[in-house]
Specification:
The protein has ten helices and twelve strands. The protein binds adenosine-5'-diphosphate (ADP) and magnesium ion (MG). Adenosine-5'-diphosphate binds next to helix 1. InterPro entries: AAA+_ATPase, ABC_transporter-like_ATP-bd, ABC_transporter-like_CS, P-loop_NTPase, Siderophore_ABC-ATPase.
Length: 252
């Protein structure tokens, strides 16, 4: 479980995350949705200790993140940031192997090599393993980054907008991989998404944020309603039940 208790983040006089308390259960897939600037990335960055909290506390699988050392935390939790600044003159295989660093500290064993092969297969990257990142399409590169975080083989996997600039097929493929990681590998996946329908169809739980606060949380059936989406985005939407799933239509 990820326990976020009274967490705030202040930049100068502005509170960008405002006293957030959350319990994200272990196992399953939780999506975080909400408008731009809601504080989603800042919250994920604080949970993974990439940004210090102004107030509050976070535990990940019982580990108090401010008290654990970086190497220990990196063996429990991996994160794909919204803007990762990895050098593009790395091959897919190099970047995936980079995910093993918290385990290998630079010395790859045969078992680490197996993890790399597995992650490459999991994301269907076999044919691209020797290519440099700057020789890939945006979707292929994104798949390599997802392989990198899965290769870290942590129980908790956080991904900030992994579907950015992906076409429909690539986006579906990534969501299926994340779903499998939760269902087959027992991982706890937390993902920031903008597409409400992806959140609705693939999540066990959705958290809605606006203005630094959590406005709502719950399973898609409870959360995907015209009222909550109006509260989150200030937009009138229609919700349809389609084959047991809630689908949001926002074209007018
Ligand atoms: N380093 C920073 N300094 C000042 N303000 C920041 C910084 N990082 C983010 N913010 C502000 O915090 C708010 C929340 O940002 P962010 O967490 O990136 O939102 P989201 O991911 O939901 O779009 C925004 O208003 C943003 O401008
Ligand atoms: Mg963001």
């Amino acid at each position: 479980m990820i326990e976020v208790t009274g967490v705030s983040k202040r930049y100068a006089q502005t509170l960008v995350v405002d006293d957030v308390t959350l319990r994200i259960p272990a196992g399953g897939l939780t999506s975080i949705v909400g408008p731009n600037g809601a504080g989603k990335s800042t919250l994920l960055a604080m949970i993974s200790r990439l940004a210090p909290m102004s107030a509050g506390s976070v535990t990940v699988g019982g580990l108090d993140i401010t008290r654990s050392d970086s190497a220990e935390l990196a063996r429990h939790l991996s994160i794909l940031r919204q803007d990762n600044h990895l050098p593009l003159r790395l091959t897919v295989k190099d970047v995936v192997a980079f995910g093993r660093y918290p385990h290998t500290r630079g010395r790859m064993t045969v078992q680490d090599g197996r993890h790399v092969e597995q992650a490459i297969r999991y994301l269907n990257l076999e044919g691209l393993a020797g290519r440099y990142l700057d020789e890939l399409s945006g979707g292929q590169r994104q798949r390599a980054f997802v392989a990198m975080v899965l290769c870290q083989d942590t129980e908790y996997v956080l991904l900030d907008e992994p579907l950015n600039s992906l076409d429909m097929k690539n986006a579906v493929d990534i969501m299926k991989v994340l779903r499998r990681a939760a269902d087959e590998l027992g991982k706890t996946v937390v993902v920031v998404l903008h597409d409400i329908n992806f959140a609705s169809c693939y999540s066990d739980c959705i958290i809605g944020m606006r203005d630094g606060k959590v406005l709502c949380e719950g399973p898609p059936q409870a959360l995907i309603t015209p009222q909550t989406l109006k509260a989150l985005y200030g937009l009138d939407v229609a919700i349809h039940d389609l084959d047991g799933q809630r689908i949001c239509v926002h074209y007018t």
